[in-house]
# Entry
Amino acid sequence: MQTAKFVVLFLIWSAKTKSSVTVKMLNSYKVVTKQKGVRIMRQYHETEKKEIQKLAKMYREFLDAGKTERECSSNICRIAKEQGFENLEDVIREGKQLKAGDKIYAENMKKSVIMMEIGTDDIENGMLLIGSHIDSPRLDIKQNPLYENGGMAYLDTHYYGGVKKYQWVTIPLAIHGVIVKKDGTCVEINIGENEDDPVFFVSDLLIHLAQEQLEKKAAKVIEGEALDIIVGNKPLLIDKKDKKKDEKEAGKEAVKAGVLDILKETYDIHEEDFVSAELEIVPAGKAREAGFDRSMTLAYGQDDRVCAYTSMQAMLDSDVTDRTMCCILVDKEEIGSVGATGMQSHFFENAVAEVMNLAGEYSELNVRRCLAHSCMLSSDVSSAFDPTYASSFDKKNVAYLGGGMVINKFTGARGKSGSNDANAEYLAHLRHIFDKAEVNFQTAELGKVDLGGGGTIAYILALYGMNVIDSGVAVLNMHAPWEATSKADVYEAYRGYKAFVEGASL
# Structure
């Protein structure tokens, strides 16, 4: 209350004295206030508000177009082509020489993408990198998944990444992915997103009989093997006139047979084709605006597609600089960045070598110099402060929704295990860049030290000897089927990434 009185008296005084400082402050809307140490969302000009809403709408469309890493990768490549980027494989095949201003992209196994714009300086002197991941926690279909039990047909699943298993029951689910047949034919699957599509679900025990279940720890309330999705309940009807179908075909598993019949008729696939399938179970439904004020976005997969989108868009909207810009969008981060499409693969390094060769700069030593002289923002999400669970956070070192872009000097767990822990000099350089561009940012840790932690791809790129720091957007309900972000934070992250690729010099 005392603070409010002071502000009123100050405004009255300033009006009388026509204070230029106050007029400038009120007109600029650039001041970030604090309330008991909490950063409060700054006010925005009408023009900025329109930019925020435009970016938020484009972001929701991006989320809806890519609920799997394959869909994301395909959509990113489409956008890149529309923006004048050339496929690296085509450039190599044609033997074209790369020069300043040229734009290229490279896709890895349809699950990760690298976008690069060649700068005016030698690539050997280092690049400006922004790296995100496009995979998200989900349920994956096993290789021998279809079975019948109790008159219902199920698909057996295996959860991917860190999930609270109990969050995935009784909600509408969709199936996305591909089924590749022995002849190489690829059948794309997307069921549950259109209004007239069926959806799927995982059942839960009714409350009336749940006395024993509710006594279990949260990790055991729903077991991993109980996350099988229900996909049918209707037995196959036998048409005696149809010689292709008989009672033996249906057998005792008539419901399973009914599902297989639908799959055969609709997609021309058989049960054995599940062996060579990649099918992911994700929440059904589009990204939505949240809150009476529509200030937030509620959607699946915002970890880490919120940073993937803002990173990509920032690069697309940035003018060519002296240093080569690169946006890395990879798979498998949620399970340790492993495999051929994860950040630990050599795909990125190989792509850099190919680009340097096409630019007439290749040597093994030059590639090593390029990577060592580069600097990077590992763009990944951070946990947002949740007042309902306030005891899990250090209020002085936590991100707040609406507080702006988040900078994490280190992530990791407990004693900084798995952390990159960026240099103070690099953080100071970024502070200078963001302040100069008037980017609203906050610094944070994931939560209280002893409670756990998390990691990003930062430590992997740091192995090259480059400066790397984590930066991104605060998220509520992280790793839940539906995650929440602030539109203002998405906007500030976009502005921060753009300021970085246009102004970083280390």
Summary: The mean pLDDT is 89. DSSP finds 14 helices and 24 strands in the chain.
